[in-house]
Amino acid sequence: MLQKFxxxxxxxLININGRMVHxxxxxxxxxxxxxxxxxxxxxxxxxxDGKIFTLDEHIERLRRSAKALAFAQIPSRDDIVAxxxxxxxxxxxxDGVHIRLTLTRGVKxxxxxxxxxxxxxxxxxVLAEHKAPVYGDGxxxxxxxxxxxxxxxxxxxxxxxxxxNNLIQSIMAKVEANVAGADDAxxxxxxxxxAETNATHIFIVSEYPVHAGxxxxxxxxxRTVACPEGITRQAVLDLCEAHAIPCVERDISLTHVYNAAxxxxxxxxxxxxxVGRVDGRAIGTESGTPAMGPVTRRLRELFREKTRREGVxxx
Length: 315
Known about the structure:
- Helix content is 25%, strand content 28%.
- The chain contains seven helices and 16 strands.
- It has helices at 33-37, 55-68, 77-90, 168-180, 231-242, 254-258, 294-309; strands spanning 13-16, 19-22, 40-48, 51-52, 97-104, 123-130, 143-147, 184-188, 194-197, 201-211, 214-221, 247-249, 262-267, 271-278, 281-282, 312-313.
- Helix 5 links the parallel strand 11 (214-221) and strand 12.
- The longest helix has 16 residues, at 294-309.
- The protein starts with 12 loop residues before the first strand and ends with a strand.
């Protein structure tokens, strides 16, 4: 699903270390760590009517990731929020906005891999764009996925809980999805179980024995063995608990996905998006025509209500 250019973004200003720069003039040094080696961390935020949903959770994950990568300096929560507010004010933004935060290790004194070459502090980039959830309703057919040949790393190769900018795995999986004419790619872990997609976490709804072995319709999502601890993912788990919707985290195979009654993805960029087909197979229907399931529909409504009700005011 290719995103189209939004004319509202033609003259946006981008915040680079506190300096507001027109998008056409924005740039960072070729000595910056993000350019040199993808040595940076990032977060996606969404602005709803002047409030950012789960802002503190995102900032905390950004700071945890930078700490795990041994950044010598990490901006405080308040400093980051101040730059977000500055960026939104400069662009007169209040609603329907996606914000990408990027924190790099900073500019090096000369090109090279060694972090000791970074001696001037980190680079913080705040990019705010007018952007609706990217998947919409999948043009009425839901999101289409194919299974990628690219596997997600386990923690002993590269801990997925470091939310870093080195996205080559995801990009290669996305290339496969593009070639196959799908929206995104489902990615497996090294054991062959589902991890996530190239851009989102994944859930299925199907029968699962919960109470005394009796099967019932249960929301299920992979354990965070080879995927990050997603913040929208956690919001969905919290909604399930709050509204008595049975939910489990477990290993999920492709067979479980193919036989699911419902399937959906979660993420800041796309919120909750229903999946209509995986590897050409219609999900949750005998007719061959995909349709959004009742559990997915209810969770979408609950999530939208939650984003209207909660959030940190920044405008």
